[in-house]
Specification:
By secondary structure, the protein is of the alpha/beta class. The protein contains 13 helices and seven strands. Bound molecules: fe (ii) ion.
Length: 312
C-alpha cells in the first residue's frame, strides 16, 4: 500500500486553511487583519496594573517548590515582577535575545491555523486584556495574565522554545488530516497541564497549572490525580477535562525528552491510525502506562468543581 506524506508549507506566509477542515467559527474583529494581530498593545490603567500585581503576588505564595525550575528562572530573567502588565515590546526585545521568540497581542482566542502559524514563526500570541476583580479567580478566555505569566517564562528555555515551534508546524499537518482534536490533547497535557520530574520531586511547567492558585498544589501534591510518564502517542488518544482539575497529569523526564518524542514521531503515520474520537477516558490507566502515582480520583468522585469537594 502506498501512502503519501503531506509536506509542510513554507511558514513565511500564512498557510491557507484547507476547505474541508472544521474549526470553531470565530468572528474576526474589524480592526485586525488576517494575522489577527492587534495594531498596538492595550494601555492598562493603574487599577488594571494592580490586578496584575495582585495575581502575581498570589501565585508567588504557591509556586516556589512546586513550579519547574526552568519556569522560575524564566520569571526572574524576564523580570516579570517589574510591576504592572509587562510591555510586550520590552519583553520581546529580551526574549528575542534569549531564544528568538516574541510576544504579540491578539484580541481573543484566534483561529487554530493562525495560532499555529505564529508559533511556527516563534511568535507567541497573548491576550490584549486583563480579567476584572469580579473574575479574579477564574476566567474562561485566556487573558494577559494567563498568557504572559503562565506561558512566556517557559519560552526562555531553549529546548522548550524549540518544542513550541515544532508544535506550531505539527498543527498545520493535524489540520490537513482533520486530527486537530488529537494534537489539542498534546497541547493540553504538555503546554497547559504538563509536569516534569526534577531531582527533588515532581514540578509543574504547564501554564494552566501555573497561572492559578489551586491546581498548582493539586497537580503536584494531591492524592486524587494519576501521574503517568508522558508517551506522545498515548496522550494524543486521551480525552481531557476543560473546566475542572485534571484527573490525570502526564510527566516528562526533561524538555529534551519532550522535544525528542515530538520531532521523532511520524505524525503522518500517527494521524492515519487515529480515529476521530478519543480512545481513552481522562481518568483511565492502561497497560502500557509507566505510572508514577495511581490517583484515588476522590476529588472527581465527590463531584469536582461546584460540589464543594476539596481538591485532595
Ligand atoms: Fe494557555
Amino acid at each position: 500500500m502506498t501512502t503519501h506524506t503531506i509536506m509542510p508549507p513554507d511558514f513565511a506566509v500564512l498557510p491557507e486553511m484547507p476547505a474541508d477542515v472544521f474549526t470553531a467559527p470565530l468572528q474576526k474583529p474589524a480592526h485586525v487583519g488576517a494575522d489577527w494581530l492587534e495594531p498596538a498593545q492595550t494601555r492598562y490603567s493603574s487599577d488594571e496594573d494592580a490586578i496584575w500585581n495582585d495575581l502575581f503576588a498570589r501565585q508567588m505564595e504557591v509556586l516556589p517548590g512546586r513550579a519547574a525550575s526552568a519556569f522560575l528562572r524564566g520569571l526572574e530573567t524576564l523580570n516579570l515582577d517589574r510591576g504592572g502588565v509587562p510591555d510586550f515590546g520590552e519583553l520581546s526585545a529580551e526574549l528575542v535575545q534569549l531564544t528568538g521568540w516574541s510576544v504579540v497581542p491578539v484580541p481573543m482566542l484566534i483561529p487554530d491555523h493562525v495560532f499555529f502559524w505564529h508559533l511556527a514563526n516563534r511568535r507567541f500570541p497573548a491576550g490584549n486584556f486583563i480579567r476584572t476583580r469580579e473574575t479574579f479567580d477564574y476566567i474562561q478566555e485566556p487573558d494577559v495574565f494567563h498568557d504572559v505569566f503562565g506561558h512566556v517564562p517557559m519560552l526562555t528555555d531553549p529546548v522548550y522554545a524549540d518544542y513550541m515551534q515544532e508544535y506550531g508546524k505539527a498543527g498545520w499537518k493535524a489540520m490537513r488530516y482533520n486530527r486537530l482534536k488529537a494534537l489539542g490533547a498534546l497541547y493540553w497535557y504538555t503546554v497547559e497541564f504538563g509536569l516534569i520530574e526534577e531531582a527533588d520531586g515532581i514540578k509543574a511547567y504547564g501554564a494552566g497549572i501555573l497561572s492559578g492558585p489551586t491546581e498548582v498544589v493539586y497537580a503536584v501534591e494531591a492524592a486524587s490525580p494519576n501521574r503517568i510518564m508522558l508517551n506522545v502517542d498515548r496522550v494524543m488518544r486521551t480525552d481531557y477535562v476543560i473546566s475542572d482539575l485534571q484527573p490525570t497529569y502526564f510527566v516528562i523526564e526533561s524538555f529534551e525528552d519532550l522535544y525528542r518524542q515530538t520531532v521523532e514521531r511520524d505524525f503522518d503515520r500517527l494521524y492515519r491510525s487515529l480515529g476521530p474520537a478519543f480512545t481513552y477516558a481522562n481518568s483511565a490507566v492502561i497497560d502500557v502506562d509507566n505510572v508514577l502515582n495511581r490517583g484515588t480520583q476522590e476529588y472527581l468522585l465527590r463531584g469536582g468543581r461546584g460540589s464543594g469537594a476539596r481538591p485532595v
